[in-house]
Amino acid sequence: MPEQPQAIVGLGANLGDRWATLQAALGFLRETPGVAAVEASPVFETDPVGVLDQPLFLNLVAGVTTSRGPEALLQRMMEIELRLGRQRAVRWGPRTIDLDLLWFAGETRVGPVLELPHPRMFERAFVVEPLRELLRAPSFQGPAWAELRARVAALPRGAGVRPWAPPR
């Protein structure tokens, strides 16, 4: 049986109980039919980008092994956002949760709803720093990930991004 594709999903939250919301989003991803595994990066607390007058974010990225195609995975991610109270009022503004499909098994797409790789993923420290950590995991050492690992390794360390650990 051929291996299922892997995708990279970015998650961020800055309203309400940020950590609980991220955990819930990861849980919903894990429960998704066609998703075989979800591996999360460490969590980072990050300064806002775009609209600066808003609370700090918690961000992470997750590697998702799935039999779903990119569009079906994106649709499920949007359902999870709605379930967790996401309201799209202000672009780059505060949000209970944000899920972005960043990368999908090296595929490319350019369309009105989905662009792969995500067009700003390498410009955003809140994506690059968690991604740098995730790509160290054993499940991301295969040749399929070599190009992405090299590209991320060549990027400078991002400002406004700090490791974060949940309270005990």
Report on this structure.
- With 168 residues, the protein is an alpha+beta fold.
- It has one domain: 2-Layer Sandwich (Alpha-Beta Plaits), CATH 3.30.70.560.
- Helix content is 27%, strand content 26%.
- Strands 1, 2, 3, 4, 5 and 8 form a six-stranded antiparallel sheet that branches. Strands 6-7 form a two-stranded antiparallel ribbon.
- A hairpin with a 4-residue loop joins strand 6 (109-110) and strand 7.
Number of domains: 1
Roughly how many Å apart are the termini? 42 Å
As a percent range, the share of helical residues equals 25-40%
What's the total number of strands?
8
Assign the CATH architecture. 2-Layer Sandwich
Which structural class best describes the helix and strand composition? Answer: alpha+beta
Count the DSSP helices. 4
Please, what is the CATH homologous superfamily?
Answer: 7,8-Dihydro-6-hydroxymethylpterin-pyrophosphokinase HPPK
Secondary-structure topology with pairs:
Elements: E1 6-13, H1 18-30, E2 35-40, E3 43-46, E4 57-66, H2 70-83, E5 98-104, E6 109-110, E7 115-116, H3 125-134, H4 146-153, E8 161-164
Antiparallel strand pairs: 1-4, 1-5, 2-4, 3-4, 3-8, 6-7
Relevant terms:
two-stranded antiparallel sheet; Alpha-Beta Plaits; alpha+beta; 4 helices; single chain
What is the compact description of this entry?
The protein is built from four helices and eight strands, in the order βαβββαβββααβ. It has 168 residues and is of the alpha+beta class. The chain has a single domain, classed as 7,8-Dihydro-6-hydroxymethylpterin-pyrophosphokinase HPPK (Alpha-Beta Plaits, 2-Layer Sandwich).
